[in-house]
Amino acid sequence: MIELKRIYYTNDLAYSTNDLSKKGWTILLTKKGMYLEKSEVEIILIEYQMIFQYVEQNVLNQIIIVEMNLFCEPSSNYIRKIDLKINQELSSLIQLLFTRFETKDRTYLVEPAIEMIIRKVFRLNISTLKEYFEIFKLIAFIKENLSENLSVSDLAEFMHMSKPTLNRFCLNKINTVPQDLINDIKITLAKNLLESTDEKIFEIGERAGFFNASAFTIFFKRSTGLSPKEYRQNYFDSWKEHSLTT
Q1: Alpha-carbon distance 167 to 77, whole Å?
Q2: 83, 85, 78: which is closest to 172 by C-alpha?
Q3: What is d(CA 143, CA 164) in angstroms, rounded to the nearest whole number?
Q4: Can you give the residue range of the structural domain that contains 42?
């Protein structure tokens, strides 16, 4: 059974993400037609913090946001939105759902209707979703084992793929090769730790899979143009300047 947490509807697009700490995936249903007009509808799986940006960038007249207990960690560097295909049956069901919201029909059981729509959409998109969830699984594996100095061979073994197959899989889904994926996750972790902790440089390097501070510094500077020490100093200087002007 699909577990729904909260359903949010608006026809004035005054939606804003009030809780920036929220993470995870939501279902976003959109309609481009005006009140009671039958028009184009879509459904996407989107990372929570991307909703406001997506709504701002697209000409939408109405939206339904469905928060769910869907536990898979997104990768903000790669995948934050998954377009889901719908057929005529689903289009009609989504149109009906919007109509019930528009007319405030309290006899219409919204949650069972949404659960049915999501279940049908997931079934229709099962092969696509499986591939994306494989990517999430791969990213989670890298993050959990980053201090072990992972190699592409380690990833291929974990995914039960040959290295060429893994290479094609990553290029197809996230437009990058496995080694670059590892490096990007290392850099993201290092930046976060430099910004949010007072850990020593060598300690951060160890957590990112480097066995000495020198190798970590060379890698970090090659990727960012700054040494870890310079990056941390620049970050805090910018933060102080921002605090003084606000």
Answers
A1: 18
A2: 78
A3: 22
A4: 4-124
What is the spatial distance between Cα 214 and Cα 123, in angstroms, rounded to a whole number? 50
For the chain, what is the domain count? 2
CA dist 241 → 29, 165, 232, 235, 238 (Å) = 41, 48, 14, 10, 5
Q: Based on the domain organization, do 119 and 9 belong to the same domain?
A: yes
Given 94, 124, 154, the domain boundary residue is: 124
Tell me how far CA of residue 135 lies from CA of 60, 73, 112, 169, in angstroms. 30, 10, 30, 9
Same domain, 143 and 235: yes
Please state the pTM of the whole predicted model.
0.69
Query: What percentage of the chain's residues is helix, strand, coil (to nearest 5)?
Result: 55, 15, 30
- Point out which residues pair with 6 in neighbouring strands: 67
Task: Show the tokens assigned to 155.
Answer: 């990833």
CATH of the domain at 204: 1.10.10.60
Give the DSSP per-residue string, 53-114. HHHHHS--SEEEEEEE------BTTTBSEEEE---HHHHHHHHHHHHHHHHT-TTS-HHHHH
Instruction: Write out the chain's pLDDT in tens, 246 residues.
Output: 567 888 888 886 555 555 545 667 889 999 986 655 667 899 999 888 888 888 888 878 889 999 887 655 545 567 788 899 999 999 999 999 998 988 888 888 889 999 999 999 999 999 988 888 888 889 889 989 988 889 999 999 999 999 999 999 999 888 899 999 999 999 989 999 999 999 999 999 999 989 899 999 999 999 999 999 999 999 888 877 666 665
Relative to beta strand 4-10, strand 41-47 is unpaired
- Asked if residue 118 and residue 214 are part of one domain, the reply reads no
CA pair distance 135, 171, nearest whole angstrom: 11
